[in-house]
Design goal:
- There is one protein chain.
- The protein is an alpha/beta fold.
- It has a domain at 77-155.
- Helices cover 33% and strands 27% of the residues.
- The protein contains 9 helices and 12 strands.
- It has helices spanning 40-48, 70-74, 92-97, 112-125, 140-152, 170-187, 198-204, 222-225, 228-235, and strands at residues 2-11, 14-24, 29-33, 55-60, 63-64, 77-80, 158-162, 190-194, 207-212, 215-220, 239-243, 250-254.
- Strand 4 and strand 5 (63-64) form a beta hairpin.
- Helix 4 crosses helix 5.
- The longest helix has 18 residues, at 170-187.
- The relative contact order is 0.16.
Length: 258
Amino acid sequence: MINIKQVDFSYGKTPVLHHIDLLVQEGEMVALLGPNGSGKTTLIKLLSGVLRPTAGDIHLNGSILGRMKRKQIAQCVAVVPQQFSMPFAFNLREVVLLGRTPFLSLFSDEGEQDRRVVEQAIELIGLAPLKDRFFNELSGGERQKAILAMALAQEPKVLLLDEPTAHLDINHQVEILDLVKRLNREQGVTVIAAIHDLNLAAIYFDRLILLKEGRIFTDGNPETLLTAETIEEVFATSVHVSQHPITRSPHVAIIPRL
């Protein structure tokens, strides 16, 4: 699905990513982990086509991403960003309908198929009772679910999420990641998410990629990757790693610096 070959990226003269080699198969669910400034968000933006590599190539389904038109990319890849603002008085349904933009021709209105896809996305995310509410009147968790519904309206093969649980309470964190996991399992959507919470990553993601200083430090499943030694080396923080009593996934507990 995605093949990243020797990708470098710099903001001006400031290098951010170095020699990234990464292969993501169709249907995988991958979490990008690492300290602030390690390059997680930048990598998400590169995969979405918003940024282009300084060196190297990214291949999407065999095509070089940098040579694809924005509309082509948007018909395959959907993004749930960290921040999304809506300056207009759009209701939830109108926001979700924006996800159909890549499939509409210039100056054309949505058709029956577009309306059906939008209603299905709203229903799947569980927002049907709120579809006529103004987006800016929704709670933080409801807005995040609306943006996820908008991404689903694109009918993507790849779903990119940048800190999807940031600023959400634990109830909405679980709701969002439950939905993403279900999309991955039931619809085969390839998921790549930048995420901070190591424990959520261990529970919901089958493959973790740990970034440090713009490089891939290690890549593997939660059981082999989330060790106290690895976490301390990457995050410079002492932790205790045990087994979650229910999920059996690694559970990371911070050791206070007292």
